[in-house]
Amino acid sequence: MIKLSYRQIIDKIEREETFHAVADDYSFSIKIDDYVPFACAAIHNGHNLDKELWKNCHHTEHDRWYEEDPATGEMISGLPLTLIAHDSRFEYDLNRHPNEAIYETAWGKRLWKIPLSESLKLKAINKHENFYKVVLTLMVKLEEMFGSVVVYDLHSYNWKRWERKVPVFNIGTSNVDETKYNTAITQWQEILGKLELPIDEKVTCEVNDVFQGNGYFLKYITANTLNTLVLATEISKVYCDEETGVIFPEVVAAVRDQLKYYIQAHAHRFYDRHHSIV
Fold it and tell me: What Gene3D superfamilies does its record include (predicted)?
């Protein structure tokens, strides 16, 4: 892996080069082993917080970890084309519009002891905007090369805060063309519902149960492409102890190893179905 500026990353994509890189501000990493008609993203994977914000934050490190999506980057690491965030959503949330990406309060608790300066806000928003410049370049390139693309947008959620039974996996589809992509959505649901995980819970997958797919990442890609489906996919935190922060590596490995196979299988079926009719 090499360190590159946003401009250098964009140039490499435009030249269709394969590479592994981390942004020079360490906000995210990108891996392109091959140009394929699918991509994977873990935009809430990050835990890094600008040092200037440490003492000003009301939330503890575990408070932040609890609302982030730890290990989701690892879960997609076996795929050939990935975008993985390293900065915490508490600094700026990549799944929100840039005008709303900096929290004042987070989950009912005031975030900052002293309101952030405009310079700190600008610094964070610049990273948000630069990330999306890379996303746009990548999506345009993939559609140019393949005609139709599918993006797996992986998140996690805290299942213990729910007072009812919730699924291990959830797919949010309220902002995609459910008629056009019905088969792909159904097949993805069937795949996730059959994953074999070393957990006590029965593995289930529902559509628009706990989340409906209202994130900015999905909306941005959908609005700026012609034939790209974003599958906003949530895994409940059965792969860790939400209360202590302990990760269960055997569960993460099982998710990673099965996603490596099933994402590629699903994506190739998607491509075969859609690329000739776009």
Answer: Zn-dependent exopeptidases
Q: Where are the domains of the chain?
A: 2-274
- Going by CATH, does the domain composed of 2-274 fall within 3.40.630.40? yes
Structure tokens at 108: 């009912």
Q: How many CB atoms lie within 10 A of CB 253?
A: 15
- Residues linked to residue 84 through DSSP beta bridges, in sequence order: 29, 42
pLDDT band at 276 (very low <50, low <70, confident <90, very high): low
How far, in Å, CA of 76 to CA of 169, rounded?
15
In whole angstroms, what is the distance from residue 249 CA to residue 255 CA?
10
Percentage helix, strand, coil, to 5, in the chain? 40, 20, 40
Q: What's the pLDDT score for residue 275?
A: 75
Classify 222 as helix, strand or coil: helix
